[in-house]
């Protein structure tokens, strides 16, 4: 299974905010730190804000701010917010045109696998994946004098 770039970018935004001073940053700063498109990041931030994970404000001193405790944000929740389709095989999707659907055991196997996948992602929090504060700050250019 592969997630979209928006899901990847969402985790990058949240990682940045988790280690940034004041848990805030501008979309431009976050895009530059990760070397990704500001335009794409705007869409991601809007979706994260709609889900109640971040808040945004305009003007001087504005930007994106993490509004929930990082230990309360699971990676599974972020993936569900950002992704629409987790049907790794056709029979898990809304339209089932497979000739052997209903008589094949694959649907059950893939369904259990997807449940196990989310069980792992739901146990991992933003706090867990951003535990290396100093390393992340250095890699993202948030430490004075640190190069990327």
From TrEMBL:
Gene Ontology molecular function, alphabetical: DNA binding; DNA-binding transcription factor activity
The keyword tRNA-binding appears for this protein: no
Pfam families from the UniProt entry: Rrf2 (PF02082)
Keywords in alphabetical order: DNA-binding
TM region(s), chain numbering: none
Cofactor: [2Fe-2S] cluster
A Gene Ontology cellular-component term: cytosol
Gene3D superfamilies: Winged helix-like DNA-binding domain superfamily/Winged helix DNA-binding domain
UniProt key word Iron: no
Domain of life: Bacteria
Name the record gives this protein: BadM/Rrf2 family transcriptional regulator
Organism: Actinomycetospora cinnamomea
């Amino acid at each position: 299974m592969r997630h979209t770039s928006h899901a990847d970018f969402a985790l990058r935004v949240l990682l940045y905010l988790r280690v940034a001073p004041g848990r805030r940053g501008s979309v431009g700063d976050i895009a530059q730190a990760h070397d990704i498109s500001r335009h794409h990041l705007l869409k991601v931030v809007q979706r994260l804000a709609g889900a109640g994970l971040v808040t945004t404000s305009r003007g001087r001193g504005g930007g994106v701010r993490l509004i929930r405790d990082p230990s309360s944000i699971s990676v599974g929740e972020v993936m569900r917010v950002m992704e629409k389709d987790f049907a790794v095989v056709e029979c898990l999707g809304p339209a089932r045109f497979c000739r052997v659907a209903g008589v094949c055991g694959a649907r059950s196997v893939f369904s259990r696998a997807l449940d196990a996948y989310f069980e792992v992602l739901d146990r991992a929090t933003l706090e867990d994946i951003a535990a290396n504060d100093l390393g992340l700050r250095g890699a993202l250019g948030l430490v004075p004098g640190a190069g990327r």
